[in-house]
């Protein structure tokens, strides 16, 4: 690890918590240079929903390279881009009756969010965007403005504007956050301007695996319709099947005006992002938002391959079943270890245990790493142990990971 | 092209100017699906300095995929990351006596710029950043704030703050822009606060291939030292050998406090960016700036391979020679076609012809495309024909491209 | 009225609602050029608490003018300034055990608020200020940022920043606004930065005569103490005895860090404002906030005379008694005219009836004007008939005014 | 002075430099409580152009008070307001062929500036305002944003936005500031958005008595017309005859779109301000900008009386002659005392000597105070001795003041 300590910036973080050099990976497993095996309950922070090094994707990539396929193309037309556009339309949009134009905003989550905010402001001619407590939308100034975390906000070094933070579902006990939002919108003396957009994650990944109720999501959409506000769903982490459906908002039966996708959209972990915009709102001028790496063709190839999982319902059902199993196990752990003061969070394969004792969640994750499980914390005080296994994990893998976790809990509680 | 028109957002731009589907590429050439060959004077907007599909890089990538190497790793430690850090230090930093820590800020140019602005603001506790007229630093709100182009700025949909635009070298005829900058800094009544940083491109790529004089760069550095301002060089487009040395600022003998690299740093066109920060200023907290795709291992592999070009001076000399040839050809064209009212711009293999007649530069580039040359315009009014061939282009390639260009000029002038 | 229509800007407002030329005034009465008499339930928007043209003040002013006293003096030392400082300290601060330094920030309400915001930001080094829904603090950009009204905010023509609007007491039915505020402050992921200050009116005059409960004020002060936030009370309209004590916050037994006074502080209606700052926070540099008209000596003279009312408790008791009478009358009207859907608002001699039917409150005030009563509406939808009689009004005056009001209600309801 | 030190805020400034208690004043003289006489070369910072305690104004005020005239009336119609509107139109606007609507924005300079910025932003729908180096427009956040002084800007405690500072006439030696401004406006890549307005003082009072050339003012107006930008002249200090004509911009033959007046507009030193807006731009909604003290009737009375000075050219001519005398005396002093490295500044009765030696100007003013002359410094480094005598001063007064000044110079230089 000397290389990293000596040459890399102090900003590095994961290599501190998991201080080993990783070498290989396949499916839900990783190995380090000592050959030690790790079960992966992290999935590259939600980027490896389809697991590590999927065989079919690997083959397609190798073939493309061997054929001197165009690797980098900005937004020039290429075959992988064409294939992706067509398959995404066929497999994802059409069956869900969604009339979105597909934008390639640059290959990162923060880029899709920045593009979403821009188009919402352009369409409405308004400036304010409403975001929610404990939201995480990215680290560039536009996205950071709608992010809740004070450490990350403070890192901007400048005040962050044009955003108003409203309470997420269940934020204040016994208070209806929709009632607040509604009151602020309808009262012309509230001090909050009519916003261009409301941006939300249906399950807040970094913010502590806070899952909004479907009913709450529906009500937010209703408010947006009543006040002519654009609804942006940031599905960067919760999308791509993470919660059991391709888009996380499908069970709420809402139709956001703009959807942000990144992370697992690239299939195998290659940088990629897309912004979905209702046709009527796709009023960009050419190049009004751009970026060099909008044409990562290798990512398009893996992305297109990944879409095969969505041609029928099997994959979705399997995720839902695994999610149910994980939920029951989490509840069991909470019951069995009351010292945790645990609370179950999340849905699908995006779940966690909130542990109401300072530092305990971090200790458990550190212990789990030593025992061969990659799992991280989330939440404003790192109080949630966050389970984000690859969606392709099998029962054996889940049990193996949960066993390590339980052992780690026991070990830490004993101390 | 129907697919792109029907399914992709209106924001697409290059596929409009070059309306064909590209399939293969090698060295300085591209082929579309009809098998038509194109000479590349664009290099993926400066991302393909080492040419398309370099054989050695292809082999390394295929080998890595075949071995199930970790593709995506955020800032976890991996072998490709380690190799890159060590080689970059050995080949680039040490020989130039540069004491920088290496930060991976997310794999795009705008990400490295956003991180540079953040650290400068953190270090100094100040908010304002001085940028220059016709600067281009990126499209997310932080980077866009220090970008000059009004169409792109307007796209933000919000006012852009914390930045002051000062005249670049030679901005106003017969006016010394340093005198102006100096006066604003020394006068406590100027209305311009002492800035955290001055950010600049030594050659403004998007802004019209405006090359600052070395003397001007030295003076800017002197001002920074006198007033304790950080100097950030955005070498995203001009770096990686584009102007004839690895960093574009080397001939000026300055040592920026922060350097932004992206585009060609990834070797073969894969998304990657790094931010170089003087050790003493590397005062980040862990994770204070982050991003999902900081660990694009395939890019690290190609990047490390690319560094081989810098182990001795041959590559640099070759670029300089090609640059001199290009300069002489540009001057010849300007002389031969006085109707262009042409002006030679830029240095190294980052040159252009500014054409003082509305729409003419665009017409020439459109005609060149039909004749098999990929070349684009730049500048606030798209008035510059911009030559950005891959650095590995040979004499034959340069001549071929210039021949097409000259034919295009003739053709367009005839009309 | 032709002169005003032809020569004065469209921005004029009161002369539209009360379209007559006023000539004389005394006590609680005004007369127009036709000799028509009006009972004043408006008191110059709270500026004439001591009534029109108080005899003693008139005498003092005339004497001062006759003696060639210095009229205008910025913050030079003059006798009227000295007298005011000493009497204000003796009569107001000392008996209430308040250790404030007195600042003259320019002679308007918005000026004292701007100075309060500045000193709070300087002391804490923070930028955000929390204000409340339906707050009104002034029309210059700093004060407007903490004002709720959307029409007035929109008039800025620029986005208003560095302020967060939180729910005032009883803002959302059955929701505890303190719980909400508390949650946003304690959660580091809330998206709301620790503020420099919380600014509030104990009774919101322009916002609809919303009176906070004493218990709520106490809790806000506790939050401020816990989080080391400065508490600013804007007592411009509610202070100077309006609610029955000199400062409106006295019954809550809180000690704000900064208090803003203007309007009636000048005694007879002459422009004046002061900012009271806890000694420990009086860390201004000389001239760090200034303004030309900080030395309006005529206002100081009337102000000093006005302080005589506070040398014992009689004046306060009288206000409280009149307030109680007014409250009972308001309740009677609400009972007697159920068509109003009336709700009693406010306390002391700052009360109102909120009327839940669009336009009705305005119609009543218009009718009252024709019948000889000056009374205006307030609230985000002009839904409150607002009673702000001079504090020196006698029982006869109150009854006379209320009689006209009741007649106006009857008349309007009949239509 | 104990009272002021013990009870008044540390923000006080003039009472530090002139530590005595002033009691009486008449014409161009003041007396303190010890009976010491002072010649006034300060005129209440330009507020007492008509001298202290003008007899006619005193009489009018006393008469009004005795008649129980309405003192305070917001923007209700009153006789003094009507008289002022009519006389201002007759005496000032009509003869100069100016078609302005008159707005009462609140009785301070910063209030008129804030209203000017608002209307310019409303009319154009743009946000940025261009101001100039060393401008001073006021201390509330809107006005402060267009003010140059860094100490005062820093006092805001927040970043100041929506303003771009451009070089005033003669700001950088041998550089044409119009060329800069022009280049930034015409270049769509300059990073400076098309502004709503350009705001300027024709002579910068606080900024160092910098007088723009008439030719420069004309060119600024031309730029405004070409780009459809509103031109705002802040004539708060330089207006009301200070430079020899009622408006300071008359000799330039320009017609600003908005003019800000305050200070001496109130005649005798009472708080008052007006904003003049070209009829076509008077598009305010009623009450869109307001303020409690818009109806200071005593000020209107003195203001109307003051207008008598402008019914013919005598007053203007007299000012011009006194200005010429002052200029010759300043030049004599500069010649006679080369140790000052003096430079003559300003025009009319708004002149100064810039002294190029740190602290010397302040020492001279301090000595002058002891010898009976009230004169202050201005400029970013307090380097200018600023002469601002009442316009009604006679030859004897001017000579008396200049004699004290010269003695003070001699005394200070001797040390």
From TrEMBL, chains A, B, C, D:
**PANTHER family with a match to the protein in the record:** DIAMINOBUTYRATE--2-OXOGLUTARATE AMINOTRANSFERASE (PTHR43552), DIAMINOBUTYRATE--2-OXOGLUTARATE TRANSAMINASE (PTHR43552:SF2)
Q: Does the keyword Transferase apply?
A: yes
Name the family. Answer: Belongs to the class-III pyridoxal-phosphate-dependent aminotransferase family.
Q: What is this enzyme's EC?
A: 2.6.1.76
User: What name does UniProt use for this protein?
Assistant: Diaminobutyrate--2-oxoglutarate transaminase
- To which pathway does this protein belong? Amine and polyamine biosynthesis; ectoine biosynthesis; L-ectoine from L-aspartate 4-semialdehyde: step 1/3
Query: What's the source species for this entry?
Result: Oceanobacillus locisalsi
The enzyme's main class, written as a single word, is: transferase
Domain of life of the organism encoding this protein: Bacteria
User: What are the boundaries of the signal sequence?
Assistant: none
Q: Name one Pfam family in it.
A: Aminotran_3
Question: Which GO molecular function annotations are given, in alphabetical order?
Answer: diaminobutyrate-2-oxoglutarate transaminase activity
Return the InterPro entries for the record: Aminotrans_3 (IPR005814), Aminotrans_3_PPA_site (IPR049704), Dat (IPR004637), Ectoine_EctB (IPR012773), PyrdxlP-dep_Trfase (IPR015424), PyrdxlP-dep_Trfase_major (IPR015421), PyrdxlP-dep_Trfase_small (IPR015422)
Q: Which cofactor does it need?
A: pyridoxal 5'-phosphate
Q: Which UniProt keywords apply?
A: Aminotransferase, Pyridoxal phosphate, Transferase
Q: Which NCBIfam families match?
A: dat, ectoine_ectB, PRK09264.1
């Amino acid at each position: 690890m000397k290389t990293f300590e000596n040459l890399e910036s102090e900003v590095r973080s994961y290599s501190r918590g998991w201080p080993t050099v990783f070498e290989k990976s396949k499916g839900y497993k990783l190995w380090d240079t000592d050959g030690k095996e790790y079960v992966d309950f992290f999935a590259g922070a939600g980027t490896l929903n389809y697991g590590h090094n999927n065989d079919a994707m690997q083959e397609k990539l190798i073939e493309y390279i061997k054929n001197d396929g165009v690797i980098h193309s900005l937004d020039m037309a290429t075959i992988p881009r064409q294939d992706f556009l067509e398959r995404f339309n066929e497999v994802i949009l059409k069956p869900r009756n969604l009339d979105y134009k597909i934008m390639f905003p640059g290959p990162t989550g923060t880029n899709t969010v920045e593009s979403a905010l821009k188009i919402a402001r352009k369409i409405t001619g308004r400036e304010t965007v409403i975001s929610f407590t404990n939201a995480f939308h990215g680290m560039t100034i536009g996205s950071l403005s709608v992010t809740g975390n004070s450490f990350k906000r403070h890192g901007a070094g400048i005040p962050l504007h044009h955003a108003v933070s409203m309470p997420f579902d269940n934020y204040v006990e016994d208070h209806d956050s929709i009632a607040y939002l509604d009151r602020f919108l309808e009262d012309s003396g509230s001090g909050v301007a009519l916003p261009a957009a409301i941006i939300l994650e249906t399950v807040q990944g970094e913010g502590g695996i806070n899952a909004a109720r479907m009913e709450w999501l529906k009500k937010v959409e209703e408010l947006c319709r009543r006040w002519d506000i654009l609804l942006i769903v940031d599905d960067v982490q919760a999308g791509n099947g993470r919660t059991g459906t391709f888009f996380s908002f499908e069970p709420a039966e809402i139709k956001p005006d703009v959807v942000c996708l990144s992370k697992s959209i690239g299939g195998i972990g290659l940088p990629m992002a897309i912004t979905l915009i209702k046709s009527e709102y796709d009023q960009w001028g050419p190049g009004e938002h751009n970026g060099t790496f909008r044409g990562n063709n290798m990512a398009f190839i893996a992305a297109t391959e990944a879409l095969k999982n969505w041609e029928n319902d099997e994959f979705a059902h399997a995720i839902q079943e695994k999610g149910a199993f994980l939920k029951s196990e989490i509840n069991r752990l909470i019951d069995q270890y009351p010292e945790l003061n645990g609370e179950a969070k999340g849905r699908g394969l995006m779940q966690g245990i909130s542990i109401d004792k300072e530092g305990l969640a971090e200790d458990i994750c550190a212990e789990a790493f030593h025992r061969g499980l990659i799992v991280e914390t989330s939440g404003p005080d790192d109080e949630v142990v966050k389970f984000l296994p690859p969606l392709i994990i099998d029962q054996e893998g889940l049990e193996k990971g949960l066993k390590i976790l339980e052992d780690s809990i026991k070990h830490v509680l004993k101390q």
